[in-house]
Amino acid sequence: MTSGMLPMLMLAEIISGAGLFVARGPGGWRAHAPNLFLAPLVVMILSGGAVLAMTRVRLYRSASPGQRHFAIAAYALLQGLCWAAWFADFDQMAAAGPIDWVVYCSLVVIGTVIFTPIPMAVALLWLATLVSVLLHVQSMLAGGLLTALMVVGILALGGISERSYRASRRWFDSATGALKAATLLREFEENRRGWFWETDARGNLTYISAQLAAAISLPVERLLGKPMTNLVLHERDAGDVTAQGERTLGFHLSTRLAFSEIAVRGAGMGDGWWWALSGRPAFDEDGVFLGFRGSGTDLTEMRRSEAEVKRLASYDALTGLPNRILMRRTLDESLRDVAGRPKRTALFMLDLDRFKMVNDTLGHPVGDALLRLVAERLTRVVQADGQVGRLGGDEFNVVLPGIVDRARLAFLADAIIQQVSKPYIIEGAHVSIGASVGIAIAPDDGASADALVRNADLALYAAKGDGKGVHRFYEPAMHASAKDRRLLEMDLRKAMAERGLHLMYQPVVDACSEAVVGFEALARWDHPTRGMVSPTDFIPIAEEIGLIQQIGEWVLRTACLEASNWPENVRVAVNISPIQFANPALPGTVLSALAAAQIAPDRLELEITEGVFLNDDEATDSMFARLKAIGVRFALDDFGTGYSSLGYLKKAPFNKIKIDQSFVRGAAVPGNRNAAIIRAIVALAESLEMETTAEGAETPDELALIRSLGCSHIQGYIFGRPMSKDDARTRVAGTGKLSMPELLVTREPRVAMLRSVVLHSLQETVSARIRNLSRTGAMIECGSTFAPGTDLELELADGMRIAGVVRWADQDRLGVAFSEAVEIEELMAPRASRSGTRQQAAS
């Protein structure tokens, strides 16, 4: 207050000085002291300006109340001394004129009024006035009375000054705290940590933070006076309703109940802004309701984080597809309508073939990129027909609500397999994989989600067991097959632990001299109860459960040790799986096996299928170079049956091409094109300076044809079946030649195939697979042993039955002659019909 009225005091001083100057006139001042008028006036103006400037600087604002009182009191004393100087030219106060007294008293009164908030300043002002008067008054009585009056006034003003100082101190402390609180609140709002609001008794806004107004793009003026409830929409999340959450903001405002952290959504702001509001009712001293005061915080980021957590809980982070949890919920909803009645739904279970090899050879980053590309292709193929999801690893599934037509499902499954099997280019590497699909249809194959998933899995196992890259519908017989597969897996682990596997050796002879030039080492499993288990049955299982590395290393070491007992010109051939080939430790294993057996590296021939080129990259080339540096030989096995490419022969250092038996068998039959294929392969090998081995030669006609076409080596039953190590030693101990069996007649043309069949005899019923088929008979792989002459009945999957008799049996294979000739096209009808159906669906 005092500092704010200083300009008025300065104006009064200027006016008073001007009045005195006019009243006295220039000659009224003593000639020897002309500055007694101007100097005090200048001092008063300058000191007043200095005090006014001081009140504007931060140093003064941060000073304590005592320091401020002292500064103003010193200023008041200075003003009183300056006034006294104006009247110092009077010899006696009695000589002063009326104007002088009026001016002097006016200044004292004005000064007293202005300095009243600071009694100390008033006391000093009066003290200066008293001294001035006492110096000039002549009456002792008047001086004594004036002195007593001044002493009483000073004492009274001292008490007032003390109380004023204390009150000022309290005000200052309160103001300082309020200033700090206001600063903190302002920073709190500016940092967007929260905002504040206030309403009147009717619930209309009387204050709202500018930060909130800016966030909702409305000026504060438009918000003031509006109902608080117009700003928000109450959250009604049925999945998270609490007793407090059910009470709306309007309910709390109308009932004048305090509330805390109510989650609300900004009205008209979509789903993007969420706030948490807290408020308390305010009352005056008489208990009259004034309104609400409260705060709010932004929940938007927290809500988004919660939404992301929910999304991650339902979606696969890698591919963006629904995960196992969401797919299970989707399947449950697809199997029941709103009323709980069952609905027809199809379920696909997918598994990627050879994905593990990609992960092991190229690394997990490439595997992750591959999974993302697979997810994109699956989504493009399925489109709006169903929902694609990832269950984990390389497993996917597809829920197809309302689609149960088998032809349509078969077409869709084939389209998925075709798209997934197309090559990928990831980080410069060419990657090729495949897919197998199992299909189950509700409610025929299961009315519940658990049953449908289990049966689709069984169908998937059947698809993988039938060679992979195919689809299979669920059949009830698959339960027994799956159980049998699990038992076989456990038995295989036990067999590896107890050395239950052994090697057989099939001779490879020179086509011209018929001398044995080598043996192929073949793993065999003589099961205690099942008998001989075919490698086509247990090798895929070993690959899936991770035993193939252990089995492959055992075969390599055992074969090399056995080869050390043969003549130095006889080689041993060992099959290397793509998984083994991708293992960086393979060269070390080969070196260790050769060193333990003490045989030359060129006596070891590694037979490699085209599967090693599915990931044609620098790692594949490096592995070939490392093995070639050891000195071993390479043979390309099963050439022409897989993803054949002449680029393999150009890049890889093969010494031999093995012509698959599917081209050899039936090649001697007039009109068969296999002979032309063999001729082309032989010409290709000769131009590349490679040897050729024809596999599966069984008849003299086939042998003669192979020789005429220029094959360098022959491997087949005509020169010997796989034999024990003792028989192999005996065969190479003599002349090295193998005598052919009795002359065999040329058989009916046969078709290579892989098809499940059930064999019925008087003693037992077993599952088997047809490997070769002709009009008069078939070669069948079976875990049981049937003696020649046993009558059998073959039951195909479509219910067709064929009577026959066992003509020959060799370990896990047997030849069956049909009682009556059948048409091959009739036996292939189920597949043909499926193909036709697919073509019809595609058109």
Structure commentary:
By secondary structure, the protein is an alpha+beta fold. The strands form 5 sheets. Strands 14-15-17-18-20-21-22-23 form an 8-stranded mixed β-barrel, surrounded by 4 helices. It has a 6-stranded antiparallel sheet with strand order 2-1-6-5-4-3, with helices on both faces. Helix 4 runs parallel beside helix 6 (119-136) and helix 13 (355-362) runs antiparallel to helix 14 (364-382). The longest helix has 51 residues, at 140-190.
Biggest beta-sheet profile: 8 strands, mixed, barrel
Radius of gyration: 53 Å
Q: Give average pLDDT, whole number.
A: 78
Q: What percent strand?
A: 15-25%
Shape: elongated
Number of helices: 29
- Strands, total number: 29
Q: Which class of secondary structure composition applies to the elements? A: alpha+beta
| Helix share, percent | 40-55%
Low-confidence stretches: 90-96, 138-143, 237-246, 739-746, 830-843
Please state how the strands of the largest beta sheet are arranged side by side.
14-15-17-18-20-21-22-23
Summarize the structure in short.
The chain is of the alpha+beta class and 843 residues long. It is 47% helix and 22% strand. α4 (65-86) packs antiparallel against α5 (98-115), α17 crosses α18 (535-545) and α21 (586-597) packs parallel to α22.
List the helices and strands and how they pair.
Layout: H1 2-24, H2 35-54, H3 58-61, H4 65-86, H5 98-115, H6 119-136, H7 140-190, E1 195-199, E2 205-208, H8 210-215, H9 220-223, E3 232-234, H10 249-255, E4 259-266, E5 274-283, E6 289-298, H11 300-314, H12 324-335, E7 345-353, H13 355-362, H14 364-382, E8 387-392, E9 395-401, H15 406-420, E10 424-426, E11 429-431, E12 434-442, H16 449-465, E13 471-473, H17 478-497, E14 501-510, E15 516-527, E16 531-533, H18 535-545, H19 548-563, E17 571-576, H20 578-581, H21 586-597, E18 604-608, E19 615-616, H22 618-630, E20 633-639, H23 646-651, E21 656-659, H24 661-664, H25 674-687, E22 691-695, H26 700-709, E23 713-715, H27 725-733, E24 751-760, E25 765-773, E26 777-782, E27 791-796, E28 801-810, E29 813-818, H28 824-827, H29 829-842
Helix pairs in contact: 1-2, 1-5, 2-4, 4-5, 4-6, 5-6, 6-7, 13-14, 14-15, 15-29, 16-17, 17-18, 19-21, 21-22
